[in-house]
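Hey, sorry to bother you again with one of my protein questions. There's a protein on my desk that I can't quite get my head around. No rush at all, and the record is pasted right below.
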Amino acid sequence: MQQTGRPGLVIRWGFLLVLSLVLSGCSQERNGAKANGAAQKKTPVPVVTAMALEKSVLLELRAIGAVAASASVSINAQVEGELREAHVREGEMVRAGDLLFTIDPRVHAAQLQQAEAALARDQAQLDHARKQAARYTSGGKKGFVSEEQIEQALANVATLDAAIQADRAAVTQARLRLEFCTIRSPITGLAGARLVDPGNLIKAGDKDQPLLSIRQLQPAYVNFSVPERHLPEIRRRLSSGPPEVRLLAATDDSALAKGELRFIDNTVDATTGSIRLQAILANEENQLWPGQFVNVVLALGSEERAVVVPAEAVQGGQQGDYLYVVTPEQRAELRKVAIGRTLGDETVIREGVRPGETVVVRGQLRLTPDSPVKAAEQAAGQKQEKQGS
């Protein structure tokens, strides 16, 4: 009985094993079908979109610049003496010719009087010598005066004539020194801090002891640099007239002033690969201050029929710049693009996108190629454009 029961037990266990394998296979097929169905019904990713537009765009270069005075003068004394009076207040606007300082003139006035007296003395002696030489010459013709006396008289005239020239030069120098006791502004500009107070003894031509500095603010200059690759384009634009330069505040990009390009430096900085430019601005209200940092916008013309998209639509990767285009089937298509300039919040697309195509502006990080998408909203800038139209 035991021998006949063992084969039956084996058969039952084999049947159960086969049945379990069949059921397991069916379960896997059902699970696979469910997974495929879930994949086909993947939830669309909400994104913000915008349309690629074709329009005319301004060609501009942006840089950081520093305001500089168009002229800067250090006021130094040209004569030695006591500084008697300061006629200028610190920080005030002065005009060319305004009186700034007075140096004690008494010593220099006395030197002028001395030089004028020496000139008068020598002039009197010269007049006498000329009369004497004339008498000697006349007497020599009659044989009353020797040739040697005549030569001596003429030499005395020449000597005194030379002394007169020296005296006149001394008078001119003394008069200049007296004039230098009153120091006037050579330019119109803004006075800086007074560096020497009245009562101090100052030296002539002491560069280490300037009395004051004056900076001319009208016009004002702005120095800035751009990459050397833009040099040919700037030179072409300059050949048809100075391009416009706009200044924006460094803090909030608010408009400050307009001017034009003044010159291009003659050397490219080999260290930075940039070239220095300078703009000139009227600065009629003195809103620009030397040393102030500003944002510079150099206008180089315009580009017609450029394809532009919101700048935030363009992403950078190891393979270069790219963006996502929404296909008619509402799927995300990854496109590699060649970009041009970024102007404000828009980027010019050279290759990769056609006008009228829809691009993803926000939500790219959740996308993969061929992901289903759903436009949650449109970019704010394009909403305004549509409302305006």
About this structure: The chain has four domains: 45-56+305-388, 62-68+220-303, 77-101+186-210, 106-179. Residues 77-101+186-210 form one domain.
